[in-house]
Amino acid sequence: MSKHTEFLAGERVDDVLFFLHEDAVSNPEALADYADPVDDGIVLVLPGDRGRSAFQSATGIDPMGLAQEAMKTEGEVHDDCTDANCPVAEEEPEENHTTKFVFAFAEAQNEEVGGIYAEGDVVHAYAVCACGERYSDKWVVEG
């Protein structure tokens, strides 16, 4: 089973996942030893701090800053974390709304917090669109 699949199943809550669109990475081959290829790019699943640092190195974006900014706008990140639906795409159909990056982490089930956190592990995902929009999504891991 790939690290990508394990992450999506809630089995890697200490790791982070990030998707890089093929058009957003100048040298995806350099990451081939660490990444899982997907249709439009690559996915990396790395231990927390190392993963955050690798995301920032690859994208030039601070992942915690991205999370804070993206939480202001709700969007839809696909549950495989390799694509998303930009929330402004309908308002700006002439723009390019390709998902450039997705950064995600999972939070273990926590019944004390309540809400969706009591239902199971929760994936928090943050997307960056080619149009510049940054948005977030979260969901309970199906398992």
TrEMBL record:
The record, for InterPro entries, names: DUF5807 (IPR043830)
Q: Which domain of life is it from?
A: Archaea
Full protein name: DUF5807 family protein
Organism field: Haloarcula onubensis
